[in-house]
Specification:
This protein is α/β, with parallel strands linked by helices. The chain has a domain of 199 residues: 3-Layer(aba) Sandwich (Rossmann fold). It contains 11 helices and 11 strands. A 7-stranded parallel beta sheet has the order 3-2-1-4-5-6-10, with helices on both faces. Strands 7-9 form a two-stranded parallel ribbon. Strands 8-11 form a two-stranded parallel sheet. Helix 1 links the parallel strand 1 and strand 2. Helix 3 runs parallel beside helix 4 and helix 8 runs antiparallel to helix 9. The chain starts with a strand and ends in a 9-residue tail after the last helix.
Length: 321
């Protein structure tokens, strides 16, 4: 089977390309820029360009499925709903229309942000209350894909080689000695290693019948303390960060939020602090039962790979004590 992967140069896209190759599928990768130079993409048929403008028929030609990762992810500096809608909704609609015309199955990478704040463990039946423009745009994209008979995969916080998100930033902060652990740090949270996300996508591609929406997680919940300890261990020699009660950090978070509203870059805001000390858990039981999804990498191994990738891609890392 040939599978098109959009956003193929990203953290989850590249892991999906790798998993597809391992399963014997051929891959056509697509991203805004040219093919990455690393060995993973040596045998990948590559096309580049803006999905909102390029011809889609040649991109989909010969493919049985498309794994759609290309999106504008949540960013604090992007607040205009129309920016998220143009890329996450209208671009998805354009791709789905072309895929439907070509009889190509669509698997959409979505996010647990569509749930909004949660007090209890969630599954696919839990109510949806997206709070941000990003989350609302992804929910709209989900509806487009489901209406065409496609598959929606909702991922929690992701991490792995090439990660430029929150876990990657956490690794950098711990490595530089610029992170304190807000306590208590014991609320469980679901996460997804890039390799496990790739396994989830491949399961959805290979199991053609169960269209619908599925949560994909590592299958094991961890705390912020677990995450910080795993990163510190992978950094080999970096001491555990200092622990500070979250109650003492909240005034700093309030001040940081005020400065951020003025456009001043700050390391801590109220939203970032609450995200650190908070937690949200999700069940991937439905994906296991209907898609045959199983994680392929442990949390500890995936964190080690994420740390080593981060170190190798940061030229100044070796100079940091």
């Amino acid at each position: 089977m040939k599978v098109l992967v959009t956003g193929a140069a990203g953290c989850l896209g590249r892991a999906t390309c790798e998993r597809l190759h391992e399963r014997g599928h051929s891959v056509r990768g697509h991203d805004l820029d040219g093919k990455p130079s690393d060995a993973l993409f040596r045998d990948v048929d590559w096309m580049s360009g803006d999905l909102g403008e390029c011809e889609l028929a040649p991109l989909l030609e010969g493919c049985s499925a498309v794994a759609h990762f290309a999106a504008l992810v949540h960013r604090e500096d992007v607040t205009a709903p129309e920016q998220y809608r143009r890329i996450n909704v209208e671009m998805t609609r354009r791709l789905v229309d072309a895929a439907t015309a070509a009889n190509v199955r669509v698997v959409l990478s979505s996010t647990v942000a569509v749930y909004g704040p949660l007090d209890e463990p969630a599954d696919e039946a839990t109510r949806l209350l997206p709070e941000t423009a990003y989350a609302r745009s992804k929910l709209s994209a989900e509806q487009i894909v489901r209406s065409a008979g496609g598959v929606v995969l909702r991922f929690p916080v992701a991490y792995g080689p090439g990660d430029r998100g929150n876990v990657g930033k956490l690794i950098d902060a711990i490595r530089r000695g610029r992170f304190v652990l807000p306590t208590p740090a014991d609320r469980p949270r679901s996460m997804i290693a890039a390799a496990n996300a790739g396994a989830g996508v491949v399961a959805a591609v290979e199991n053609c019948d169960p269209a619908g929406t599925y949560l994909i997680t590592d299958g094991r919940d961890v705390t912020l303390r677990d995450l910080v300890q795993a990163v510190s261990a992978a950094l080999e020699g970096r001491p555990q960060p200092l622990e500070v009660p979250a109650s003492l950090l909240r005034p700093l978070g309030h001040a940081g939020s005020a400065l951020a509203m003025l456009g001043v870059p700050v390391p801590l805001t109220t939203a970032r602090l609450e995200k650190l000390v908070g937690g949200a858990t999700f069940s991937c039981r439905l994906a296991t039962e209907r898609l045959g999804y199983e994680p392929v990498v442990s949390f500890e191994q995936a964190i080690r790979e994420a740390v080593h990738s981060r170190l190798s891609s940061t030229p100044s890392a070796a100079a940091v004590g």
